[in-house]
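Aim 2 progress update. The chain analyzed this quarter is reproduced below.
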Amino acid sequence: MQSNEEVLESLPTDDRLAGRTALVTGSTSGIGEAIARVLAASGATVVVSGRDDARARRVVDAITTRGGSAHAVPADLAGPYADLRAFAARATEVLGGRVDILVNNAGVYPTMPTDALDDADLDAILATNVRAPHVLVGALAPAMADRGDGSIVNIGSWMTRVGVPFGAMYTASKAAVEQMTRTWAAEFGPRGVRVNSVAPGATSTPGNAGSAAVLDTLTAATPAGR
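Predicted structure tokens:
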């Protein structure tokens, strides 16, 4: 079986998104990196973002080496509201004045039992998984609506559909993302902005490398078993 990197290195290229711009949060590794690299392979100019500038530049280099276009704009999405809005403005600036595609992918996922979740982790989940997408959509969707065109994709989770004996706040945050998606589709859809949510299943990424046993348990009942 190919590694994730081998799959990304062998992405076919096309021009379906030529001339379009995209901001992908949490795109310095894992699912977000894959999204950024797929968008770039289809011709979009992509802002790669995360808390670590060096990791963002690594993804940018991987994209540009294959002939794509990307910029690194680091951001801590758990920071103050003003910083989030400044990040949206900076991303818009480096993309030439417009963001056509916003992918709200960034998330934190402490999934311990309820009584073991400390206050700092609870605050981080709410700030990164719920508050940040709301602020970014508020900052970027109106311009999409004014143009009559745009796309917002929110990354949810399969865990909003089942009951598992841990991670109550994480799964609640992803349920909030799904409901915000419905509301934004009703709010901005009539003005040309498509708003959708994608709910990945259990996915092995660098961010959960230490949780292999948990992933094995979660996926044991699936058809593939992995």
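The mean pLDDT is 91. The helical segments are 4-9, 30-41, 53-65, 81-94, 119-147, 168-188, 212-219. These observations will guide the mutagenesis experiments scheduled for the next reporting period.
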